[in-house]
Amino acid sequence: MEGVNRTGRARGSGPAGANLGAVRSHNTALVLGLLREAGAEGISRLELAERTGLTPQAVSKITARLREAGFAAEAGRRASTGGKPRTVLRLVPGAGHAVGVHLDRDELRVVLVDLDGAVVGERRARVDLGSGSEAVLGVVAGAVEGLVGDGPGPADGLAGAGSPLGVGVALPGPLDHARGVLHRVTGFPEWDGFPLRDALEERLGTPVVVDKDTNAAALGLSARGAGGSFAYLHLGTGLGAGLVIGGSVHRGARTGAGEFGHQVIQLDGPLCECGNRGCVEALCLAAVGRGAVAEAARVLGVGAANLVGLLDIDRVLLGGRTVAAAPEAFVRGVGEVLSAQARREGVLGGTVPVEVAPGGERVVAEGAAQLLLAPLFGREG
Questions:
Q1: Which residues pair with 99 in a beta bridge?
Q2: Rounded distance, CA 282 to CA 296, Å?
Q3: What is d(CA 381, CA 376) in angstroms, rounded to the nearest whole number?
Q4: Cα 273 to chain center, whole Å?
């Protein structure tokens, strides 16, 4: 299959995609980030220079390259305090795209997003993480190729015009984000040590980034404007947390942070698939299985209260298909536990707010696409 290599040059005879060499620098990322923030109204070169600290000459060179590559365009003129009106520039959202993949234990969701993060295409498929790597990779590759082929502009595999910057893949952890290697995914130990990033890059011929589903979701929520420090708690087929501390995703020294579901809160509790007893995940899912949603919400609240007490975060965001099935019950149950904790401890500022994360069930897939887009705009990926 033809694709795009790490320099952005197309392999084979397909038409070349976006000129990524024009946008891969720190200063260019700063300019691109400001262009995106400015929206359709645009921003002038002088304003770009003032806000980035770059010289007007440097900004002119950068914006010229961006315009030549198709990433920026004129958005009209704006009156100035003296001299001729200033030309303002805007980002061209359709100039580039990224693919976000949410690979769950039993379901696959793939989205194609533009440079603004807007979803322009989506595919879903059933998948069994226990069916073996070849079968799973085949489903993922087929969905990605099919979605990109249906996407904006002509396409030749992944090497067509408007070809994606790459593919972000988010799935249950633990895993090594830096190397793209899986560890012992809870319930699927056969994936331990599997080099998912390299295997998918070989199949797709385009850059791939791999991260935990919760980290990807947290990154996507941060890109949406969820500022400050927060925890994203994802309750679906498993339970995990994505942590944003001071505006950056916290992965830890070994990229293993956020294994929230396997904190033990009941020493003699039910056996969890991780091998421990009384994990928050096991207790939550057991309660959900019995139809005791209120109990599951309280258990999740106990885990959330531990996290809030440890990290003093600003808010808690809830997501995942299990939460989506009863959002009000989970927000109420978790919120009640946090409120009780705040009253007992006399916490300054009161209760940490609990909300359903915006984005619905696409929050992980959209966040996975941000693994490619965030670095392009000078944010942590």
A1: 112, 167
A2: 10
A3: 9
A4: 26
Task: Confirm if 43 and 35 have CB atoms less than 8 A apart.
Answer: yes
CA distance 86 to 78: 5
CA distances from 346 to 189, 213, 337, 341, 351 (A): 44, 34, 14, 8, 10
Spatial separation of the C-alpha atoms in residues 365 and 321, rounded to whole Å: 13
Q: How far out from the chain centre does Cα 16 lie?
A: 27
| 299 close to 287: Cβ distance less than 8 angstroms | yes
The pTM of the full predicted model, rounded to 2 decimals, is 0.87
Stretch (H or E) spanning 365: helix 363-376
Could you write out the DSSP letters of every residue in 298-334? HHHHHHHHHHHHHH--SEEEEESHHHHHSHHHHHHHH
How far is the CA of 222 from the CAs of 61, 230, 366, 378, in angstroms? 30, 9, 12, 13
Question: Does residue 12 carry a pLDDT above 70?
Answer: no
Lowest-confidence range among 124-128, 258-262, 282-286? 258-262
Q: Are strands 181-182 and 119-126 parallel, antiparallel or unpaired?
A: unpaired
Q: Is the peptide bond before 56 cis (omega within 30 degrees of 0)?
A: no
Which residues, 6+ apart, have CB-to-CB distance to 195 below 8 Å?
179, 180, 181
pLDDT tens, residue by residue, 178-221? 999 999 888 898 999 999 999 999 999 999 999 999 999 999 99
Neighbours of 90 (CB within 10 A): 18
